[in-house]
């Protein structure tokens, strides 16, 4: 079983952390994958470099398995992050566009109605990232944050994005690149320690947060996930649970793709955490009364339990 880390040479926030990682000991040239890509191997990690947009190369994990015969356990992407605020940030997030309708064209990869398996390391790694960034004196200049589930590319194995934001000056920051490289190095146990966020070793703490509601940086869900031992699945912000206002009518079907989105995110999270207890955590203040009633009713119909913050500790 190997971990596949993907970076693109056209993005400094992607290639700089990859190069910082490749500067550490133990790397060897990897197998030939395809003519426009390079690969490198170190213990159980495979780095794959290409020169395209990070979100356009679909099914790299499946294709790697077919070419090399190696079984991919997880996929990690390095990328830049953009935000209207232009604030410096280091982010981690799952991927997918489960709210899009069939026929919609995803603006940044993926396919409508799809949610990737969330990488179980997301929760443990956001906590590790905060500690590493603190040790490198990037706090409080950089915000350390989760992002909601969004964009592609298509993958088949547990996946997460690690991003540096939010402008070109920060994308090129070598200290931020070093922090992301150290996150991968320590998080995968390449330096000789135990890897971080290995679900198969989870003892006792089997509750997994499925976030529903809130803004793109999911602060209410973040508050819970920053506590020790909390596992994180998909994080659906408000824009990923679109609901059509019934305009005061009662006993009507609430339109929109919100049910599809929640169900896809739940099923993917459940698959990524075998044996886990998936609990929906709602950002209560982000919903109007009719929205909360509809969502809680649907969760009950789907036998998806709702968890309050204390239920995860």
Sum this structure up briefly:
This protein is α/β, with parallel strands linked by helices and 313 residues long. It has helices spanning 12-22, 60-68, 122-135, 168-171, 174-187, 219-225, 258-272, 289-301, and strands at residues 2-8, 28-29, 38-42, 45-50, 72-82, 89-93, 143-146, 159-166, 207-212, 231-236, 277-282, 305-306. GO terms for molecular function: D-aminoacyl-tRNA deacylase activity; metal ion binding.
Please characterize this protein's 3D structure:
The chain is α/β, with parallel strands linked by helices and 313 residues long. Helices cover 28% and strands 22% of the residues. It is built from eight helices and twelve strands. The strands form two sheets. It has an eight-stranded mixed β-sheet. Strand 6 (89-93), helix 3 (122-135) and strand 7 form a beta-alpha-beta unit. The model has no long low-confidence stretch (mean pLDDT 96).
